[in-house]
Amino acid sequence: MTVDTKRPGTITDPALVIFDFDGVVADSEVISLATLADALRKYDIDLTLAEVRRRFLGKSIDKIIAEVRGQSAEVQWDGFVPHWHGILFARFAKDLTPVPGVVNLLDRLDAAGLPYCIASSSGFERIRFALDVMGLSPRFSHVFSAQEVRRGKPAPDLFLHAASQMGETPDRCLVIEDSPYGIQAARSAGMRAIGFLGGAHLSDIQVDHQTLLLAQGAHTVLHDLDKVTVQNLLKILTQVP
Predict the structure, then answer these.
(1) Best label site of 113, 126, 163, 227, fewest CB within 10 Å?
(2) Cα 106 to Cα 179, 205, 220, distances in angstroms
(3) What's the confidence (pLDDT) of residue 40?
């Protein structure tokens, strides 16, 4: 485990762990970004995979469409999500796997009695399909989506909604995120934030991406969930702003 801690301080133990989904629970971002690039190409938006990752990682589909709509003004975007999801779900069914170490971490959280949930920019249909493919649906009885709030990440709305629904205050929540937008959302919500760099989509840019996560306020960054114990997490989170 590699940890970069920002500034010292003390906090109480977190009462709720909030997982981002894509790139933290599901090792889905390579598939998602590649199929998004393919889908956009059919809508006259030609971007490299690196550009898609830089511009859209961690954003909801509504934000993505809003950003690209002006580049292809004549296109009818109503059919874009079904078009993309058709490609995406076929790839998920064939290739999707959990992020290495996440199942073992869930086991440790369960053993410690530490509750957890998912709060994702993705829609419910995508999250549930991916959980089913990976056999993880029984592990997550609490799933929250940007579909439930007015503003997606980097606004704090989704994380605040998740905390409220789980009966916890923001100051007792710990967020594990792989995107700068997610870290920004967690910090804006008044939560502690851990940046995660172990997804396959970050393998070639870990150093630069670590800098981005820390710049947005991540308290620490982790590379390997399989080496993280509950005690590690709580110890790391005693050193915060």
Answers:
(1) 113
(2) 21, 27, 20
(3) 92
